[in-house]
Amino acid sequence: MFIALEGIDGSGKSTQTNFIVQWLETHGVATNNILVTREPTHDGAFGVKIRKVLSGEEAMSVSPLEFQELYVRDRKEHLENVIFPHLRDEDAIVICDRYFLSTLAYGRAGGVAHEDLMALHEKILGASWKMPDITFFIDVSAETAMARLGQRNKGRTPEYFETKKEFLRNAADAYRELAQTFSNVFVIDGEKPAEEVSQAIRSILISQFSPCTRQS
Fold first, then answer.
1. What is residue 126's three-state secondary structure?
2. Is the dihedral of CA 44, 3, 157, 175 positive or negative?
3. pLDDT at position 46 over 50
4. What is the domain count for the chain?
């Protein structure tokens, strides 16, 4: 099974990723069958380039469309080198912090047309493509996200998008529209306390996994 977590910066994806791992292990999934990964990647050639821009180490020197192309090329490497090899085992589970919808939401927030973003995936990925079995979109307002990021970023430099409230607002709006467009996308109210968000995710996991897990 391939699970993706989506949402704007500050939505709580990392916290809920940890919850999902703990829930799976509690319900009998072996630790070595669970792969937690994220995009942009930390060690892929394109992922490293993206992270340098996000951290401010390098200036944003390309157009919004060209920047999103880096994400799609990073995704191709990520699928071929990390995700697909792990999923060869029938008991394997991949949990990915950000994936396909992030490119669409953030690209659209940056002014890139939806059709151009889809065309990038078709051109670069072609048959090397997989949609998640489950996508959790953790929905929060830009105001909530900015408040959380302010707390989290004490003592560290915020990333490129983390200081752009209007951009995050537009990305959140794009996510909400996309959640109605693609299948197997579950919208979770991220404004609630983390424990309640986890319980909402838990209910969905119970409905999606084998009968032996549905009683707990």
1. coil
2. positive
3. yes
4. 1
